[in-house]
Structure formats: structure tokens, C-alpha cells
Write a structure and sequence with these properties.
The complex is a heterodimer of chains A (403) and B (188). By secondary structure, chain A is α+β, with helices and mostly antiparallel strands. Chain A contains 13 helices and ten strands. The longest helix of chain A has 44 residues. The chains are: A alpha+beta (403), B alpha/beta (188).
């Protein structure tokens, strides 16, 4: 069989029966472009989320949080069992701990400055926040180990909070008031924008964790802490050791749920990955429904086309086409249409994804895998919808076809 | 006609082509034999619409593995006197020209046998005469042409006439004016 002639013939049919081709193509173009676009959206969201996690949560860290939930304390009030001593014990017992820091926070405190009152969250950290939490200051200084030891009345402030309280004045050295506690501003926090929970990380103030616990909250428990290991390879083992150690220290029986959780990067990625699967898998599956409809439409159009082309099939058989060759030829016509529509659809999807991404509101990522997925789906639609009509064509009896 | 053209099988009896009995051959083998040995010309021309003359003539070559299909198709069209109409569509050609395209399509695989079923049935008298002239030329080249017709006068131009009335063979006559041709097909 002369393949070049055969495919040239298929392409010719596509061009000469324009309306028929158009109806066959529309479903695939829409389906494939939607698939590529939605995959770009899903993958973009996933990458943005992962970037965010990687920026704030390096691969060699474990977050140890109070409460048994994944991301914070369980409902029914704060868990008060996680203490500074727990982290000192972790440092002593777990091999490979390079750094650690602890954290507590007080949401929506009234912060006053010269008659202005503004509600902000106050976070308490230990020193070295750049190394532990990947956030430093752009101006002035963060508090020192000495400030943490002595529970100094100092604070660093987010850019948006500083602007709200001090306008264009230099924040350094200004004195603000939380309840009865005066705090002196020593630095301005690196801007971080809105976090994944939707809170504005630039509208908060940081104080030494001891200052927050003793002077503002009057509490001795922590919200959580972070352990930084000297190698990412040690994370999973260290997490196990931390679990054992803290269960022991908190006297938690084997069958009881823990009152803390050790969150590793892998755990976070699993959780986020699950959430994103909705975007990157199930949305494209909706595009799959469009493709299924396209397959049914194409199969119908081909069946009608074959009725119209009965004499043609008769001629082809008379001049020596075998049944298998007729079958292959009609299947190839459907596949040529499907693949061409798939290419157009993928092109439109890519253009739409880049166009929408350029608006800057939604991260979009077009991957070769998504495009191949779209083209593969198009070819599959071509095969699925073409098999039955092509078989029917090949079974025609040449004598009655030529009558 | 359908049995001679290997489009249908005989209910009884034996048909041999080139000394080979066809009754035991598979559908695919018959298709290959049609492709290689037989060219068809139909009363209704049966050209593909929206497909130009060269593309129509190329069709049998899709199913064989001939080199240079386009050159062969052009040569066949030139042979039937349509060298000036290569890119014309069937809708743009007269009946006589369409039938010539059909003959070129029958010729393109260089078959030993051309089967023509009422080839002049849809043509005016002058075109019909032209066509018979073309058949005579092809016959003179050494090709076997079998023409099925109701037209007594047309039949007179053949070297051998087989008359079939209501499915029965009633007369086999060698036309005295012409030398006898060697038949390659036999119906029993």
C-alpha cells in the first residue's frame, strides 16, 4: 500500500469536505484547548504553592506544632503542653540538629501609637529568624539571643503595619504600646505578602517569644517551633525520633493520639499535592467529557459520510483495495482530522494559557507533558470514533456498492 | 460481468484467469488480482467527486506499490488524450472526457484485461464512437477488452461476440472481418 498517497488522500478529503471536517474538528479543538489550558492552570497553581512552601520551609526542616492536627492546634482551645524545654530536649537527643527556633502568636491585638490604634497579630520568635524561618529585616536589626533571654521590650514591624502607624516616618526607635507593655521598634521585616492562609505577613509585628509569653500572654506554652537539620536526608529519621521523644516527655500512651505534630516537607507536599490534584487532574477530566462528546459526534458524522461514499468504496474495491486497506484508509481519515484538530486545540490552549498568565493574577505553567496529553487524547478520540465506521465501510459488498 | 471482474463469485462452474482457478482464492487475493490484472470501465463512469483527473487515476496505485504514481497517472491520461485536462475535476469535464478519465484509471496499473460495462451508455453518439476508437487502439496494443453492451452495432466492432439472452449463452461468433483474439478469461 502506498502510504504517501493514502495520507495525501485523507488530507485532501479533509480540505475538500470543509463543513464535515469543521463539525468533526470543533469538539476536539474545544476539548484539547480546554485540557491544555486547565492543566496549565493546575500545574501553575501547584508550582506556585510548592515555590511558596520551599521558600518558607526548606527541605531540611521539621515543624513541631502543638496539637494533633496537621497545621495547627485542634479545635477545643489551645493545647498548652508544648514547652521550650521540649525543644532543648530535641536538640540534646536528636542527632543532626543544626538550629532550632520556637514560636508563639497572639492574634488581633490592639497596638497603639500616638492615638492611633490598629489590630494586628503579634508573633513571638526566638533569635536567628533568617536561618530558621527564612525571614529577616530590611532595615534596623532583629532581636538578639540576649533580648530573648531577658524578654526585652523590643519589636520588629511589617512594612504595611509600619506605614499604617508611622506614615513615612522612620519606624526605628518608635515606641508602641500593647496593653500596658511598651515596645521599642528595632527593625522592619522583609516584605512577604499574603501567605497561603490568606493573612497579610506585612501587617504583623514580631517580638522575642519570651516577651510575648511572659509580658503579653502570661503563658508558658508554645504554639510550635522549627528544627533545622544539617542534611535533608536526616529529616524522616529525625521526625520519628522527635515523635518518640515528645510522646515520652508528654506521657502519651501508645494508643493515644499525640498532642503535637511533627510536620516534614514531605508531609506538607503530600497535603498540598492532594489539594492541587483537584486542579491538575479533575478539571482536565472535565475537558475529557468534551472529548467524549466529540468522539460520539465524529463517529456519527463518519457513519453518515460513509453512506454518502458507498459508490466510492465500491470503486476502490473494484480497483483492488482489500478490506483491510479500506478499513485503514477510513480510520486514517478520522485520525488525520483528529490529530490536526488536536494540534490546533493545543496551540489555542497554549496561547490562552500564556495570555491569561500574562495578566499576572493566576500562575500558569504549560508543560510538554500537558501538550502531549492533549495530542494523545485527540488521537485516541480519532481512533475510538473511527474504528466502527471504518469497519463498516470495509465490509461493504463491492457489487451492491457500485449499483 | 461481476464474476469476470472478480467482484462476485460464481455459484457453480469454474472461472480461471491466466490459467489460475479463482474459486479457492481469498477476498484479499481476489482484490490483489483485480488490482494487477483487471481494469474497470463503468456506464456511470464512477469517478470520485471533488477529486481531479490525476488523483482519480492514481487511486488503483494507492493499493499497489507502484513507483512514481503521479507520473504513471499522467502518462495514462495522455494515452487517452486528456493531457490537457490533468487538474480538471469530473464536474468540469464532458461525459466523453469523464469516461476517458475512467479508462485511464483502468489502464494505469497496466492490466491485461479491461472490462467495460455499457461504456457508451451515458455518452452521445459522437463520444461513443470516439470511445470505441480508443478501445480498438488499446486492443491493437495487445490488451483484451471485454465490452458488455445491448448495442448490436457496437458489438459488430468486436473480434468475438458472445450473446447472452436472459442469462443463457446463445451465440459465440468470431467476427470474420477481424483476426481472432486469444481469450484470457472463460466463462463456463
Amino acid at each position: 500500500m502506498n502510504m504517501k498517497l493514502l495520507f495525501a488522500g485523507s488530507a485532501r478529503m479533509m480540505v475538500r469536505y470543509k463543513m464535515r471536517t469543521l463539525f468533526m474538528a470543533v469538539g476536539i479543538v474545544v476539548g484539547v484547548s480546554a485540557l491544555v489550558f486547565m492543566r496549565a492552570m493546575g500545574v501553575g497553581a501547584e508550582q506556585a504553592m510548592m515555590d511558596n512552601i520551599n521558600r518558607t520551609f526548606s527541605t531540611a526542616t521539621i515543624n513541631v506544632m502543638a496539637g494533633g492536627g496537621h497545621m495547627g492546634p485542634r479545635s477545643g482551645g489551645p493545647v498548652t503542653t508544648l514547652k521550650m524545654e521540649d525543644f532543648q530536649a530535641i536538640e540534646a537527643a536528636v542527632p543532626g540538629v543544626a538550629l532550632w527556633g520556637v514560636m508563639q502568636w497572639a492574634p488581633k491585638q490592639d497596638i497603639r501609637y500616638q492615638g492611633i490604634t490598629r489590630q494586628m497579630s503579634i508573633f513571638g520568635y526566638s533569635d536567628k529568624p533568617e536561618a530558621v524561618w527564612q525571614r529577616g529585616v530590611i532595615q534596623g536589626e532583629y532581636f538578639s539571643a540576649e533580648d530573648v533571654n531577658s524578654a526585652s521590650r523590643v519589636a520588629v514591624i511589617g512594612t504595611r503595619a509600619a506605614e499604617a502607624l508611622f506614615g513615612t516616618d522612620d519606624p526605628i526607635g518608635k515606641q508602641i504600646q500593647v496593653g500596658s507593655v511598651p515596645l521599642r521598634i528595632t527593625g522592619v521585616l522583609e516584605p512577604q505578602g499574603i501567605d497561603t492562609h490568606g493573612s497579610d505577613k506585612d501587617d504583623e509585628i514580631h517580638v522575642p517569644v519570651t516577651t510575648l509569653m511572659r509580658r503579653i500572654m502570661n503563658a508558658d506554652h508554645l504554639f510550635g517551633g522549627r528544627v533545622v537539620l544539617d542534611s535533608p536526608a536526616k529529616v524522616e529519621t529525625a521526625a520519628k525520633q522527635i515523635n518518640t521523644l515528645l510522646r515520652e516527655r508528654h506521657s502519651i500512651a501508645e494508643n493515644e493520639p499525640p498532642d503535637f505534630v511533627a510536620i516534614t516537607p514531605k508531609l506538607v507536599q503530600d497535603i498540598v499535592g492532594n489539594a492541587n490534584r483537584v486542579l491538575s487532574r479533575y478539571l482536565p477530566a472535565a475537558a475529557g467529557v468534551a472529548l467524549l462528546v466529540a468522539a460520539i459526534v465524529i463517529a456519527n458524522i463518519m457513519l453518515i459520510a460513509i453512506k454518502e461514499r458507498i459508490p466510492e468504496i465500491g470503486i476502490r474495491k473494484a480497483v483492488g483495495a482489500e478490506n483491510g486497506q479500506i478499513n485503514f484508509q477510513f480510520l486514517s481519515e478520522t485520525i488525520v482530522v483528529a490529530l490536526t484538530s488536536g494540534l490546533i486545540g493545543a496551540g489555542l490552549g497554549i496561547i490562552a494559557a500564556f495570555g491569561y498568565g500574562a495578566l499576572g493574577t493566576t500562575p500558569m505553567a504549560v508543560t510538554p507533558g500537558s501538550v502531549l496529553l492533549g495530542l494523545g487524547a485527540a488521537i485516541l478520540v480519532g481512533i475510538v470514533s473511527g474504528v466502527m465506521p471504518a469497519r463498516q465501510a470495509s465490509m461493504l459488498d463491492p457489487v451492491s456498492a457500485l449499483r | 460481468m461481476n464474476i469476470l471482474g472478480l467482484l462476485d463469485r460464481a455459484d457453480s462452474g469454474e472461472y480461471s484467469i491466466d490459467g489460475q482457478s479463482v474459486s479457492g482464492l481469498s477476498a484479499s487475493a481476489l482484490a490483489r488480482m483485480r488490482n494487477a490484472k483487471i481494469g474497470f470501465v463503468f456506464q456511470q463512469f464512477h469517478l470520485l467527486p471533488r477529486t481531479n483527473a490525476v488523483e482519480n487515476v492514481e487511486i488503483p496505485l494507492i493499493y499497489s506499490n507502484a513507483d512514481n504514481p503521479q507520473e504513471r497517472a499522467i502518462a495514462a491520461l495522455k494515452r487517452v488524450g486528456l493531457g490537457e485536462r490533468l487538474k480538471h475535476y469530473p464536474e468540469e469535464l464532458s461525459g466523453g472526457q469523464q469516461q476517458r478519465v475512467a479508462i485511464a484509471r483502468a489502464l494505469v496499473t497496466n492490466p491485461e484485461l479491461i472490462l467495460a460495462d455499457e461504456p457508451t451508455g451515458n455518452l452521445d453518439k459522437a463520444s461513443g464512437e470516439d470511445l470505441m476508437g480508443l478501445f480498438e487502439e488499446l486492443s491493437a496494443d495487445g490488451r483484451t477488452i471485454i465490452v458488455i453492451t445491448h448495442h448490436e452495432k457496437l458489438a459488430e466492432r468486436a473480434k468475438r461476440v458472445v450473446r447472452i439472452d436472459d442469462g443463457r449463452l446463445t451465440e459465440v461468433r468470431h467476427n470474420s472481418k477481424r483476426s481472432s483474439a486469444t481469450p484470457i478469461g472463460e466463462v463456463a
